[in-house]
Amino acid sequence: MSVSHKNKSTAVMPTYSRADISFDRGDGAYLVSTDGTRYLDFCAGIAVNALGHSDPRLVRALNDQAKKVWHTSNLFRIPDQEILANQLVALSFADLAFFCNSGAEAVEGGIKLCRKYHSANGEPERYRILSFDGSFHGRTLAALSASKNAGHLEGFGPETEGFDILPFGNTDELRAAVTEKTAAILVEPIQGEGGIRPAEYDFLRDIRSIANELGLLVFFDEVQCGIGRTGKLWAHEWAGVEPDVMAVAKGLGGGFPIGAVMATSEAAKGMVAGTHGSTFGGNYLAGAVARKVLEIVSEKKFLEKVQEIGKLLRYEIAKQCEKHPTVYKGVRGKGLMLGIKCGPPNSELVKLLRDEGLLTVGAGDNILRLVPPLIIDEHHVAEAVSMLSKVAKKLEKKKAEKKD
Ligand SMILES: *Cc1c(COP(=O)(O)O)cnc(C)c1O
């Protein structure tokens, strides 16, 4: 049976509201659609394509490995997985890493690790995780139960037990919520899906000190904000606070699916043979690509450039906010993880920008999210800003015409 690209009906389960575009190829920060239109990609697979599209170093790493061996399962040692784990450990607070295939799985693994830690300490009744409103931790049942987004949970039966949700940024309520059953505090240093909401550095420091005081684990979800996205390898470096456990994924494989649970050896002390596993996690292909991504992204010069370009993009967006205050109401975020508060619905702006040739993605709180590849340059910023400006002018003109 052949599938026509023109045929709009599809057997894919309709869980996404997709734009009717597909792509033929990618090149750096650009994507070319099947009808030949060129787009500047400031969505980057939702903060995934850290090195953009078709980076020759990643293409080579994948192809070289593909010719040798793809997959063996974790019944055997996987050298590139071990190298990747060593890299992650050398570059972070962590002593150990477990590999999976996605962000939600990394969060799940981290939740299990936190519970197991207290169980291994002889306190199995300490299993509850504190998390925050506006958070997003993925679409598995436990991850959804951690975020408690009513729309995401609707119709899926009882939540997974053991999660208490608190106001994001309120230290007093956090302290008051800790009980003898609390195992860990789970937080995104910068909320992504929730609308590019950075945690105050002081709040992250408070989380660390409350956890130290009361024997809890600190669990950072850096699935979106990690891997250089903010101009430091880990977003929590900005606050100078280290977690005990961390979930990473999105940028790690640069587009190849891989996630990781990173932890100190103390926090991971319950994770002995047989306690957790994944068929695909960290296989040969994933390991070969991710170790290359990490090697490139963790370079000091690379990260400095992300900071510099992020500042420029933010500055240029702030200027657009001043020029078009009814369309763009402000900019927030860090590095190349930026959100613009929209006047009109963000979905309308995403569509108008796409028609202009700029791919972006919405986020909660009516935010237009810009998460471009980390390799963008000054001229990509200029190009994106000129499209932002064009769309704002169009909207202002439309509004003025309505008034007449
Ligand atoms: C995207 C995301 C997840 C879920 O990742 P998937 O790969 O879609 O399962 C979890 N946490 C955060 C912070 C994310 O941005």
Q: How would you characterize the overall build of this protein?
A:
The protein has helices spanning 44-47, 56-66, 79-90, 103-120, 141-147, 150-153, 171-177, 201-214, 284-297, 300-323, 346-356, 378-403; strands at residues 23-27, 30-33, 38-41, 96-100, 128-132, 163-166, 182-187, 190-191, 197-198, 217-221, 245-248, 259-263, 328-334, 337-342, 358-359, 361-363, 367-370. The strands form 4 sheets. The chain has a 7-stranded mixed sheet, sandwiched between helices. A 4-stranded mixed sheet has the order 1-2-3-15. The chain contains 12 helices and 17 strands. Pyridoxal-5'-phosphate (PLP) is lined by residues 102-104, 107, 136-138, 188, 192-193, 221, 223-224, 249-250.
Oligomeric category: single chain
What is the H level of CATH, i.e. the homologous superfamily of the largest domain? Type I PLP-dependent aspartate aminotransferase-like (Major domain)
- The CATH class designation of the largest domain is Alpha Beta
Q: What does the overall shape look like?
A: globular
Structural class comes to alpha/beta
Structure described in brief:
By secondary structure, this protein is α/β, with parallel strands linked by helices.
For the structure shown, list the relevant keywords.
404 residues; alpha/beta; Aspartate Aminotransferase, domain 2; 4-stranded mixed sheet
Topology:
Blueprint: E1 23-27, E2 30-33, E3 38-41, H1 44-47, H2 56-66, H3 79-90, E4 96-100, H4 103-120, E5 128-132, H5 141-147, H6 150-153, E6 163-166, H7 171-177, E7 182-187, E8 190-191, E9 197-198, H8 201-214, E10 217-221, E11 245-248, E12 259-263, H9 284-297, H10 300-323, E13 328-334, E14 337-342, H11 346-356, E15 358-359, E16 361-363, E17 367-370, H12 378-403
Helix pairs in contact: 2-9, 3-9, 10-12, 11-12
Residues 102-104, 107, 136-138, 188, 192-193, 221, 223-224, 249-250 line the site of pyridoxal-5'-phosphate.
